[in-house]
Amino acid sequence: MGREKAYYEIERPRKTRVLPKILTEEEVLSILRCTTNIKHKAILGTIYGAGLRRSELINLRKEDILFDKGIIFIRGGKGKKDRAVPLPESLSMVMKRYLELHRPNYWMFEGMNRKQYSAGSIMNLLDKSARKAGIERKVTPHMLRHSFATHLHEQGTDIRYIQMLLGHSSSKTTEIYTYVSHRFHAKMKNPSAVILKS
């Protein structure tokens, strides 16, 4: 239009920080105790015990579980990144029992006609177990993953190690768990204590 070039700086909108919804260790234990089906127990136990995303659990193959080394391989996670996480002994026992009874072909957890287990089925079985456990709020598979990370932080696990286990690219993503951890709040000395002394 024959005008001089102009430069306009537009401020980016600030991102909202939503704190993750978590369960207490007692609530997770109660959910797993109320899950009597061994296959369902193995599914929920793996999501929590390894901090997996629902899609990562669905894509687990039998060969990705190395019982002798105590490792679970997660292949092609978010960002197409592979990683390895420890296989807890308690989860290993449940998995072995499940494999003995169900004998899946290729996928670790199979649905109808030996196909991959569905995301909807995971949601349904978790919802059923949570209701049996007397938990009234809505519980999702991702809450188990959030709880895994938060409980590790509360036990004193280094945030960098938690980042590696979860497969986060940035430590800033993992640091969100510090805001819901009891460990974080326990360090804070609440100034309202002076009210009781006055």
Overview of the molecule:
- With 198 residues, the chain is mainly alpha-helical.
- The protein is 46% helix and 5% strand.
- It contains ten helices and three strands, in the order H-H-H-E-E-E-H-H-H-H-H-H-H.
- Strand 2 and strand 3 form a beta hairpin.
- Helix 1 packs across helix 5.
- The longest helix has 14 residues, at 89-102.
- The mean pLDDT is 86.
List the helices and strands and how they pair.
Layout: H1 25-33, H2 38-50, H3 54-58, E1 65-66, E2 71-74, E3 83-86, H4 89-102, H5 119-132, H6 141-154, H7 159-166, H8 171-174, H9 182-186, H10 193-197
Short structural description:
This protein has about 200 residues and is mainly alpha-helical.
Properties at a glance:
single chain, 198 residues, mainly alpha, three-stranded antiparallel β-sheet, 5% strand
Please work out how many helical segments DSSP would assign.
10
Strand content: 5-15%
Largest sheet: 3 strands, antiparallel
Shape call: globular
Annotation, overall tally of beta strands: 3
Low-confidence parts lasting 5 or more residues at pLDDT below 50?
A: none
What is the percent of helical residues?
A: 40-55%
Radius of gyration: 21 Å
Specify the structural class.
mainly alpha
Largest sheet: spatial strand order: 1-2-3
Name the helix and strand elements from N-terminus to C-terminus, one letter apiece: HHHEEEHHHHHHH
| Overall pLDDT score | 86
The separation of the N and C termini measures 72 Å
